[in-house]
Specification:
Blueprint: H1 9-30, H2 34-70, H3 74-99
Length: 107
């Protein structure tokens, strides 16, 4: 592997897209949707956020491995960006779910 060959802007864009998609797929695999998290946060916040933290670790770990193998930082940058954004999204959903009163009718 030669790290002397610079990547084109197109190559960088592809790497960012691939590893951002990878990170999003991790969350799809390991977590329910933010909407579901919001709905069940009052009863299951600890469990829901446990799996978000695992998603964070798997996404960032995958980006780190890809960065090491490729010799380029971009896979890690993309995975970190998605992990931070998704973590915030799930944390926001928990906040809404625990601050929002239960809907009328008990459902």
């Amino acid at each position: 592997m030669s790290s002397a060959t610079p990547l084109s802007r197109s190559d960088i864009a592809v790497l960012i897209g691939v590893y951002a998609t990878f990170a999003l797929d991790v969350y799809s695999t390991l977590n329910s949707s933010p909407q579901t998290t919001e709905l069940f946060a009052g009863d299951r916040e600890e469990t829901l956020m446990h799996w978000v933290l695992i998603g964070d670790a798997v996404a960032v770990g995958g980006g780190a491995v890809a960065a090491l193998v490729s010799g380029k930082i971009w896979p890690l940058v993309a995975a970190l960006a998605v992990a931070v954004g998704m973590h915030y999204t799930y944390r926001h959903a928990v906040g809404r779910g625990t601050d929002t009163p239960a809907p009328a009718g008990g459902s």
